[in-house]
Amino acid sequence: MRHGKKINHLGRQAGHRKAMLANMACSLIEHKRINTTVAKAKALKQFVEPLVTKSKEDTTHNRRIVFSYLRNKYAVTELFREVAAKVGDRPGGYTRIIKLGNRLGDNADMAMIELVDFNELYNATKKEAKKTTRRSRTAKKATAPAAEAPATEAPAVDTEENKEATE
């Protein structure tokens, strides 16, 4: 029976598991995305999300609590400065796990875990799509007559008809 066994031990003793999760969390905060196994990514998500929530309120107490988990002052500084500024209005769900397939060596399920607000591909297309549609409507009206006028005056590419006409 597995009653009350909520934590995935990841085949490690408690000290090793805490150190591994702290190192992975520091790497995630520094690089904004890392590749790992699915089980470690899920464990890391449970480890990091409360820390990001703590970082939204920048107090000495919260910094000390986060430092006790991460044990890296550079990661704590970056978490409270950059990450907290981007996720300030988000109520939760700061990380995203994307499954990548199986690792060649041992066929382990691999995943990429990333901070949601730092992914330029997902965030940029949504925001720019709205801006470009608004710009294109006004830009087409303003540039359409100007763009057509030079196109009619410019000579066409050298074709057989143009060569015969010049001769």
TrEMBL record:
Ranges of compositional bias, category Low complexity: 141-156
BP GO terms, sorted: translation
Region (Disordered): 127-167
Keyword Ribosomal protein assigned: yes
A GO CC annotation given for this chain: cytosolic large ribosomal subunit
GO MF annotation terms: structural constituent of ribosome
Keywords: Ribonucleoprotein, Ribosomal protein
Pfam families documented for this protein: Ribosomal_L17
Source superkingdom: Bacteria
Assigned protein family: Belongs to the bacterial ribosomal protein bL17 family.
PANTHER family, alphabetized: LARGE RIBOSOMAL SUBUNIT PROTEIN BL17M (PTHR14413:SF16), RIBOSOMAL PROTEIN L17 (PTHR14413)
HAMAP family on file: Ribosomal_bL17
Subunit field text: Part of the 50S ribosomal subunit. Contacts protein L32.
Protein's UniProt name: Large ribosomal subunit protein bL17
Upper taxonomic lineage: Bacteria, Pseudomonadati, Bacteroidota, Flavobacteriia, Flavobacteriales
Gene name per UniProt: rplQ
